[in-house]
Design a protein that fits this description.
Length: 468
């Protein structure tokens, strides 16, 4: 039922790697049929990528600076109107490769069955949502960071230490929790492979140069990103919330199976993987406690991915300890029966996640339609300041479509002049409708209304309305 043979850490064949990658690309393209839009951060990264191309980077209006997604966005942003779609395909491909990475590492350690279990468990992270699917579909970098962690381990196991170092460097360019791992692995590689010292030096230099140098260029302060990340400093219970999110980052039986792997393993690799997951998680919690950084569930994804791998190894090895035949079959049924309530409970939430994704996509589509009917980006820019009554995804989406820095799109609708984007039927819509003749509705849609307030180029005769 479950193979007894222990897999050797054998390099993936070039043809196999190409087929796997091509399959992930094809699935990412096919997933474009699912209604979804970019998340808040991916929109911000595309804006930054466009600004880097124009040598006018402005990182003051959004979240904290991250070099890796910003560099990827530099490659995608010049594609213009198709850039968001290309980003989704790229990010989804890398997210799917994270699932492949979980399968691959667990397979190397304990066979194909362990690989399948690890991949399945990863899909149920990083919270009760489970929102791994949403993170992949909306183009977030958290699944990418999980994939980088997993493939770093996989490359090390097959002896490709230089490639492993490159991957952990990329991980450290996406998440500051990766810095200690880059340092440790870099020092190990420096000692054991003198021929790789140039590579190690380059990786070490890239961290301060791209993290602090990029933010310095975009904001005027090398520490602006650290300040922007302090969104939870006023929450007294942020540490308890961070711990709760850690516990919920994987489905509950995963923790028990991971501990079982330590008991039944004869090698140190499972202990090292769990230790790495623990260090990563403690860094997330410590930064939340010390600096007020948000300990969001997705920040635990690299750690959760490693725990999923170790848990899969533990579950498979535990079953293999049972005598083959009917006893082993019973053991499998017992494990499945015990884990099913938690697994089914999380998996049943997938439909709610898809509904949430679709609702966000509908709101963004309505915004794009309203911008077009209002006369397009140039007309909106001509009216002066731009604001929107949303601090969520629509704000960076508006900045991208109107071709302005994110800092140029305000969050408050109480301004004397300019363009004001409000939700249809909301309080701001009612207030602006009654504001007087100098306030003109340029476009009214199902989700959004775009007003011009005291804009010389807008008059009631130019008013545009979108049919309900």
């Amino acid at each position: 039922m479950i193979a007894e043979r222990r897999e050797r850490p054998v390099e993936l064949a070039g043809r196999t790697a190409a087929v796997v990658t091509a399959t992930c690309v094809a699935l990412a393209i096919a997933a474009l049929a699912v209604p979804a839009t970019l998340g808040y951060d991916p929109w911000s990264w595309l804006i930054w990528g466009r600004e880097v191309g124009h040598l006018e980077l402005d990182t003051t209006g959004g979240g904290s600076w991250k070099p890796l997604p910003a560099l990827l966005a530099v490659l995608v942003a010049p594609l213009g109107s198709v850039a968001p779609t290309v980003w989704l395909v790229l990010a989804r491909t890398l997210g799917l490769l994270a699932v492949v990475g979980a399968y691959r590492v667990a397979k190397v350690l304990a066979g194909r069955s362990a690989g399948l279990v690890a991949a399945g468990l990863l899909l149920l992270t990083p919270d009760g949502g489970p929102r791994f699917l949403r993170l992949v579909l909306e183009g977030h970098s958290a699944p990418i960071s999980a994939g980088l962690a997993l493939w770093t381990v996989e490359r090390h196991l097959v002896g490709r230490h230089g490639q492993a170092f490159v991957l952990v460097t990329l991980l450290a360019l996406d998440r500051p929790e990766g810095w200690p791992f880059l340092g440790i692995y870099g020092l190990w590689l420096w000692w054991h492979r003198p021929d790789r010292r140039g590579l190690v030096s380059g990786g070490f230099l890239a961290i301060p140069l791209l993290w602090f140098g990029g933010d310095w260029w975009g904001s005027g302060s090398p520490l602006h990103g650290a300040d922007a990340a302090q969104v939870s400093a006023g929450e007294p219970d942020r540490v308890s919330q961070a711990i709760e999110r850690l516990v919920r980052s994987v489905v509950l039986p995963t923790w028990a199976a991971a501990l079982a792997a330590l008991v039944w393993s004869r090698r140190s690799i499972e202990l090292l993987l769990l230790a790495a997951a623990a260090v990563w998680s403690l860094l997330v919690i410590a930064m939340s406690a010390a600096f007020g950084y948000a300990a969001l569930a997705r920040f635990y994804l690299p750690a959760a991915a490693l725990v999923c791998v170790v848990a899969a190894v533990g579950a498979v090895r535990g079953i293999r300890r049972v005598q083959p035949g009917w006893r082993r079959a019973v053991a499998v049924l017992v494990v499945v029966a015990v884990a099913s309530p938690w697994v089914i409970g999380r998996a049943s939430n997938f439909s709610a996640v898809l509904d949430e994704i679709e609702a966000r996509a509908t709101a963004e589509d309505d915004l794009a339609a309203a911008i077009d009917l209002a006369g397009g980006a140039a007309r909106l820019r001509a009216c002066g300041p731009i604001t929107i009554d949303s601090a969520d995804v629509p704000r960076p989406a508006l900045a991208w479509r109107v071709d302005v820095p994110l800092s140029a799109v305000g969050r408050s609708t109480r301004i004397p002049t300019g363009v004001v984007v409000v939700r249809t039927g909301g309080k701001a819509d009612v207030r602006l409708t009654a504001a007087g003749p100098t306030t003109v509705a340029l476009a009214r849609g199902r989700g959004w209304v775009i007003y011009a307030v005291d804009c010389p180029s807008a008059s009631p005769s130019l008013e545009v309305r979108l049919a309900e």
